[in-house]
Amino acid sequence: MGMSNYLKNLCFNKNKTEIIVEDDNKELPDVRKISVPDLKQYLIKGYEEIRKVKQEKEQLENDLEDAKKYKDLYEASLVTANEFQKRDEENNVKITKLNDIINNLRLEIEDKDETINNYKIQKNELEDREQRIDTIIHDKEQIAIAACKESLIEEITNLKGSISKTKLISLIEKVSD
User: Fold this and answer.
1) Distance between CA atoms of 74 and 61, rounded to whole angstroms?
2) What is the mean pLDDT of residues 17-27?
3) Rounded to an integer, what distance in angstroms lies between the CA atom of residue 166 and that of residue 116?
4) Could you please report the per-residue DSSP string of the chain?
5) N or C: which end of the chain has fewer CB atoms below 10 A?
6) What is the rounded CA–CA span in Å between residue 2 and residue 23?
7) CA nearest neighbour of 84 among 73, 94, 92, 95
8) CA nearest to 20, candidates 37, 33, 6
9) Across the strands, what pairs with 19?
10) Distance between CA atoms of 59 and 52, rounded to whole angstroms?
């Protein structure tokens, strides 16, 4: 008799107070005697345990799905973090290159400013020299004009009588030589 026959007998023979459950498999030669009220309680407990196990299984499956979602999110965040780190490194390299360019340009500007300052200094020196030369020339011209006046006055005073235009022109030509 198989297990299904025992269940059929169990359902049809409600008058029996004891049920003997035997395993036809003979690998487990256990024979247990279970009374009918205990069997009902045993089955109820079995169903409750099955229900609990199913609930635990469902909860574990839900937890597994959540864990897979979190794992996917974690892996995506790792990829995002790695991508962000790569971009950050690339940006740092760009920033370093731009800073180098800025520093080089700053040095160039400083050199050009120094050159401009040198040219300004040279210009000021040349303007001062030009002014001194102009002053010297002006002073020499004034001295020459004064000497010329004195010479003309002296020549004119040394002449006797009235001076004609031609004599005055000849005296001026004489002084300028």
Assistant:
1) 19
2) 51
3) 59
4) --HHHHHHHHHH-TT-SEEEEE-TTSSS--EEEEEHHHHHHHHHHHHHHHHHHHHHHHHHHHHHHHHHHHHHHHHHHHHHHHHHHHHHHHHHHHHHHHHHHHHHHHHHHHHHHHHHHHHHHHHHHHHHHHHHHHHHHHHHHHHHHHHHHHHHHHHHHHS-S---HHHHHHHHHHHH-
5) C
6) 8
7) 92
8) 33
9) 34
10) 10
| Segment 126-136, tens digit of pLDDT | 999 999 999 99
CB 59 within 8 A of CB 38: no
Residue carrying structure tokens 């200094």? 121
Q: Which amino acid is at 24?
A: D
Of how many residues is the chain composed?
177
Query: Which residues does residue 22 pair with via DSSP β-bridges, in sequence order?
Result: 31
Q: Is the pLDDT of residue 140 over 50?
A: yes
